[in-house]
Design a protein that fits this description.
The chain has 347 residues and is α+β, with helices and mostly antiparallel strands. It folds into three domains: 132 residues, HUPs (Rossmann fold, 3-Layer(aba) Sandwich), CATH 3.40.50.620; 58 residues, Roll (SH3 type barrels); 79 residues, Elongation Factor Tu (Ef-tu), domain 3, CATH 2.40.30. Helices cover 24% and strands 25% of the residues. It has eight helices and 16 strands. The chain has a six-stranded antiparallel barrel with strand order 11-14-13-12-15-16. α3 packs antiparallel against α4. The two termini are 33 Å apart. The relative contact order is 0.13.
């Protein structure tokens, strides 16, 4: 329970369906006395209070598990290291993979619970080979992209009560249940950066990339910059335009401090390498190359593609159509229709 409307409504729906419910909130950051403590940022002190209040209102026990040290190591340190190396991290995928599901399912089993339920917008379908992870019916809220790293054995113990609902239906259900957070705004920023200023956070944590030059595709210098962590592939804002031409970040060379920029057409690519590949079912696909659709960002459309058989954990991806903004460090998730087949990290 994050303190938001989604997990609160999921709990209320399970109670109404006759389940015995126990609420659990992960404390992931120590936000006391900071801007994050005002709430609406997932796992802030105010949000923990909201989760506790919902559990009290609905009449079931509520626990808070302190995982701040593990979160720091698995998510925040990884986030800083990725920016320092010129990559674009996705902390929400890492959090689901490392913290939100495995440890919570372990706690659930320790207290004798049968399932771990969350407020994620995704679906699970039972099959003889194990659960199939599917997109939610509300495509605008679909969170399946963030879940590809959750292992098959963990998914077997999970429920997603909201997977067949739209956000409007969830809020309507919350009002019907009389939940105080029925109209609480959704979290918009990364939970440990409530200001939304990634650059300042990385700098404050000692993760600034090297200073250097912004150069064009031919290597001609256009401007100096104060750190590669201030850029991401596909970025346009803040780039020099001495000749009035719009430019985009094409490549970040953290070792030399060079940021290579060029026209938008130069961002288009059909080939990428994906490392640390994993699958959402116990058995990986049997036929190669794999025909699927590959999604390279949360809000991007999935592009039809071929994926080669993994070699030492990595795989080559050939997209049918050139795609812009393929950023190293982001997740590339493989879909077969609505089903999440697997995914990995763009190298």
């Amino acid at each position: 329970m994050s303190g938001g409307v989604d997990s609160s409504t999921a709990a209320a729906m399970l109670l109404e369906a006759g389940y015995e419910v126990v609420g659990v909130t992960l404390k992931l950051t120590n936000a006391a006395g900071t801007a994050a403590s005002i709430g609406g940022r997932c796992c802030s002190p105010r949000d923990i209070d909201d989760a506790r209040a919902t559990a009290a209102q609905l009449g079931f026990p509520h626990y808070v598990l302190d995982h701040t040290a593990a979160f720091r190591h698995a998510v925040i340190d990884d986030f800083i290291a990725e920016y320092r190396s010129g990559r674009t991290p996705n902390p929400c995928v890492r959090c689901n993979e490392k913290l939100k599901f495995g440890p919570l399912l372990g706690f659930a089993r320790a207290i004798g619970a049968d399932k771990l339920a969350t407020g994620h917008y995704a679906r699970l379908e039972s099959t003889p080979e194990g659960p199939r992870l599917l997109r939610s019916l509300d495509r605008a809220k679909d969170q399946s992209y963030f879940l590809f790293g959750v292992s098959p054995d963990v998914l077997a113990g999970v429920m997603f009560p909201l997977g067949a609902l739209t956000k409007d239906q969830v809020r309507a259900a919350a009002r019907r249940f009389g939940l105080a957070n029925a109209d609480k705004p959704d979290s918009q920023e990364i939970c440990f950066i409530p200001s939304g200023d990634h650059q300042a956070f990385v700098e404050a944590q000692g993760g600034a990339g090297p200073a250097g030059q912004v150069v064009d595709e031919a290597g001609a210098p256009l401007a100096n910059h104060t750190g590669t962590h201030r850029f991401t592939v596909g970025q346009r804002r803040g780039l020099p335009t001495p000749d009035g031409q719009r430019r985009f970040v094409l490549r970040i060379e953290a070792a030399t401090g060079r940021v290579v920029v060029g026209p938008r057409d130069a961002l288009l690519q059909r080939s990428l390498r994906v490392d640390d590949v994993r699958w959402t079912q116990a058995q990986p696909p049997a036929h190669w190359p794999l025909r699927c659709a590959v999604q390279i960002r949360h809000h991007a459309s999935a592009t039809p593609a071929w994926v080669t058989a993994p070699d030492q954990g990595g795989a080559a991806v050939e997209l049918d159509e050139p795609t812009a903004g393929i950023a190293p460090g982001q997740a590339a998730v493989f879909y077969d229709g609505d089903q999440v087949v697997g995914g990995g990290w763009i190298a």
